[in-house]
Amino acid sequence: MALKQTLAVACALLLGACIITSSLPTDATHAYCKIVWLVGVPCDQAKTAMVTQIKAMGSYKLGSVTTYDIQANHSSAFDQIESVNFTMIPTSMDLGCHIEGSSMSAFWYSLLDNGTNYCNLHNVIHGSGLTKAPGFVEFTNEWLCLGVALSACK
User: Fold this and answer.
1) Please, where are the H alpha helices in 57-152?
2) Burial of 144 (0-12, 13-18, 19+ CB in 10 A)
3) In this structure, how many other beta carbons lie within 10 angstroms of the beta carbon of residue 76?
4) Other beta carbons within 10 Å of 17
5) What are the φ and ψ backbone dihedral angles of 140, each rounded to 5 degrees?
6) DSSP secondary structure string, 46-83?
7) Residue 44 vs residues 66, 74, 94, 98: alpha-carbon distances, Å
8) What is the model's pTM?
9) Rounded distance, CA 9 to CA 20, Å?
10) Alpha carbons 26 and 14: distance in angstroms, whole number
11) Three-class DSSP category at 41
12) What is the pLDDT of residue 84?
């Protein structure tokens, strides 16, 4: 039984790594972050929670919202602007949701942003309560999310 669980976890991690690396940003001269989350709630419920959270946060401006996409902008200290996007993909039988989040700074000089882009995404997911959803898992690393190791989200 332990072997099956280990194999299942290994497959989930490999799948997450493949999904993350399949859509790296095309512009490596800007600070960016890409994260994939898996949550055990339907995507419509996840979308509602994230949109509600974005609206409640004063530094975010909600943009386009469609069935499976959320676009917003975040204004951080020193007038930096980051483009924040979430894409949701229902998992099998709509019992869960695969969420891909990305945040990219608008200016080249924010390449070393100490994890601002990670915090842009983390603060929405955490504030929405999705980190407490059944089966919550987060996939990212320093290559996909510059400064994640330095981040101190508030």
Assistant:
1) 116-127
2) buried
3) 16
4) 14
5) -170, 175
6) HHHHHHHHHHH-TTEEEEEE-SSEEEEEEEEGGGEEEE
7) 10, 23, 10, 12
8) 0.80
9) 16
10) 23
11) coil
12) 96
